[in-house]
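pipeline/complex-builder :: batch 7 item 3
reading input block
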Amino acid sequence: MDWLALEFMQRALLAAVITGVTAPAIGTYIVQRRLSLLGDGLGHLAVAGVGLAMLTGAAPLPLAIAVCVIGAVGIELLRESGRAHGDVGLAIIFYGGLAGGLLLAAFAGQGAGALAGYLFGSLLTVGAADLWAIAVLGAVVLLVAIGLMPQLFAVSADEPFARTIGLPTRWLNILVVALAAITVTVSMRTVGLLLVSALMVVPVATGTQLATGFRAGLFVSMGLGATAAVSGTIGSYYLNTAPGALIVVIAILLFAASWPVSRLLQGRPDRPIEVGSPDDEPLPEQVTEDHPHVHGPGCEHVAVEHAGHIDYVHDGHRHAAHGDHYDEH
Amino acid sequence: MRLTSEQAPGPAAISAAGLGVLLGGVPIVRDVDLAITQGEAVAILGNNGSGKTTLMRALLGLVPHRGEVELFGTRLEDFRDWNKLGYVPQRSGILVQQATAREVVASGRLGHRRAFWPESAADKQAIADALAAVDLTERARHRFVRLSGGQQQRVLIARALASGAQLMLWDEPLAGVDHVTQQLLADVARRLIADGVTVVMVLHELGPFAEVIDRTIFVQDGRVVPHTPDPSHHHGGHEISELAANRPRPHQTGLEAL
């Protein structure tokens, strides 16, 4: 645990926790709107801001945020007006940003090597001033993502309906992409611009597997994001790797592990699948006399709610206990 | 002559004059004049592609339109009283992954809530009442996407109920919904109408709503046309006149159209 005494490690861990919590929080709305790859594109755009900072000698974070937010809002306005229908337009903006950033960095005499710390994250580059900026911006993103949860959920789930209840849908949409742009840029020191998008999407997918409900999914994915970010940061210290890669690999491993867990959760007997309608006429039943296995909650068979009782799926049939025998449905 | 011109004067919930909608340069709704009085139950009927859904979306300001639309006497452009509206869009438009039925219904209550503020006791009660009205209290904590088509439709109706709307606009509530659910939705509509709520529905056929609907507006090729006799829209006609006669209502017009 000697790394805890290192000041840069403390800063890196704090920055990682903030990224790990904020990226899935805003990512939840991005995924909901089926814009999972938006974060990736915004990361490319932020490279242009970093390149510009290298050329002008300005601090990279504010400039990258400015470029990324302006680009994100522009993309949202294009999308809203229907002019960015295909994703070709978006691809041109995104790759223009990446190529422009590389060129600007080259003009500044820094080359692609200097950009690597932003593209893949770099623990050593998180300074005290950066940490403050990251903390403040992260707090703003979280305040909105959690405080406006019902409004942002309504807009991303059903925009026409949200308009008919008087929500300012355009501003809420712009708010989401602007906050996504800030999150992406803020994460460039920890996860890196090329991989931050994964942290906006993968923990959200895992949270969706594990939790029932939008709100629960949001908080579970924030917890998963923080877990991946902290363990990845510590691991990268020992393995001497870029933290972003390890954080994302851990997030994906958590997603893979969530499959069997979610199967267990969904197999819970208190949530049977419902088929048919309680008012349906009962079908003529086929009776099975000989059935050694006793079905019940927790047995390996899928539970199906049917006309007021629970059937268990068994060899392609639905079984229901009926007195001393089983009915087949 | 338009059916709507027979309408007796009364406080209007919706009125439109010269309403037109162009989508991609194609006229979808053309020169529609209509007036729906508060407390009326009106069905907008028409074939697929006739423009009836676009007409409803134009009345809500969801698509750019030409002409004038007024809701409760206020121009649509100036209308801010959104809590008076209960819109139920077609089911396919909703994008939810893991949200529960209750979370979807709760979003119908947002017009009453302040930003950054939690649900009040009144909000919680309204959400619970809306779920109970469509008989889905048991399913409140289930994922919306896992519910059957009929249950999803009931969730969307409950979402519109949660705001306590005075004007319901339901777009094809019967699409892909079984017989039992259709009856349940007709019961919900009957209770709303008894409470004085204006109900406007885009429908393919009246089905179980025949006995609660006062008047039909027939849309063909983007225009409101006089109702042509069509046997499929006639069943239940007897109950309509009976039910309408029992309700205090300043206007009995439009029933002739049925």
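note: Chain A has a mean pLDDT of 84.
queue -> next item
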